[in-house]
Amino acid sequence: MATSMVIGTQWGDEGKGKIVDYLAEQADVVVRSQGGNNAGHTVVVDDRAFALRLLPSGILYDNKTNIIGTGVVVDPKVLLNEIENLEHEGKSAQSLQISNRAHVIMPYHNLLDEAEENSKGDLKIGTTKNGIGPCYADKVNRVGIRICDLLDEEVFKAKLDYNVRIKNKILREVYGSTEAVDYFQILKDYTEYAERLRPYVTDTNYNVVTAIKEGKKVLFEGAQATMLDLDHGTYPFVTSSHPIAGGASVGAGVGPNYLKNIIGVVKAYATRVGEGPFPSELLDETGDYLRNTGHEFGTVTGRPRRCGWLDLAVVSYAADLNSLDYLAITRLDILDKLPEVKICVGYTKNGEAVKGFPADLRELEQCEPVYETLQGWQCDTSAIKKYEDLPEAARRYVERISEVTGVRLGIVSVGPNRSQTIVLHDVFAN
Ligand code: GDP
Ligand code: IMO
Ligand code: MG
To answer: Fewer CB atoms near the end CB (10 Å): N or C, the chain?
Structure first.
């Protein structure tokens, strides 16, 4: 069975898109299984950057099947725009398949996301305002509209009518919103989207499992990351899906035994967009340095990303939650000029080592990160192709990450391009 999975181990934006694009060369099928256009995966090919949001990061090859699986929430307008943009760039989305079971983001989801955020004051999450949470909430509440419903005019009209009536009431009466949605406008727009999406829609659950059984190489692409997981992240400052490895089983519709070679992507430092705890955050000039050197501004919202030292309490937690087989360490090059680099290797509370990861955010606030200071390497790593050619201090840094987390090194990335990828293990091997 040749499957592999790429998972974010921190708060997102670790470079999953780059790693998926790199590994996709060996893959036959690339599958997204959760999240939606809250994701922003930048893939650089021949110095051209593609910012992918719903399209899987295997789309830039001509000969791969790319699947938007059941657990993804699909905004048809965003997806069609993305397909159009790709075509303008001379690429094709012909290989795309969309799950007939995936849920559809509707205009009222965007309005509710905005209204809910605005009503929360200090409790606001800092969402991407793409309607992700409200769409998943409707799914759980069993009033969502799936892609197969969108393609059936009669079913779609009935579900839309129900939702528009309820959502407008909530918008007006609960949130005091002056904005409302119009049934006929949505019907017109979404009927058009449906016809344009119809050729891509299929039973992807069946197709993914069949591909695995036929011995094809299937690569699962995580979006968001472990600390944004709805159950296991820093709730409520999380997204509304399950970005962890188990989530891919549910989201793609494949049994857990089919999932092998789970790769945790670790940015060589830490970033977070939006609100919520971030124990190793740097609010000083080192934080500014990481933001400026790393161009740490959100792909989706343009917001400056909060920056900090690498937190291995977080990555070790991710190693367990995802049963990681390998680490892919990215953006090592961003640390190239620092004279010394710190890693948080765990937390203490009242002088005692903290075991596991605190659920209670007030307890997390009381945790003190324990730092190790490692020597910097102060040389340009961005052109290095072989692991043994990395400066000793850089090797020491990545090896320490592997030691503390107990996960072996698979890949070290020293730049956004495919060629800037150092491979230590064939992470697609059985
Ligand atoms: P994702 O959401 O996990 O796919 O990550 P993003 O695409 O949002 O952010 C990662 C950014 O880092 C993108 O602009 C990538 O092109 C870039 N990137 C990935 N790996 C590396 C690396 O090793 N070094 C540098 N300098 N940039 C990288
Ligand atoms: P990729 O796949 C970083 C964050 C948002 C917010 C929280 C909830 O590019 O790594 P949502 O819109 O999902 O309801 O927002 O989650 N968030 C991300 N942060 N990278 C992402 O995706 C994210 N997707 C959501 O900033 O804090
Ligand atoms: Mg991103």
So the answer is: C
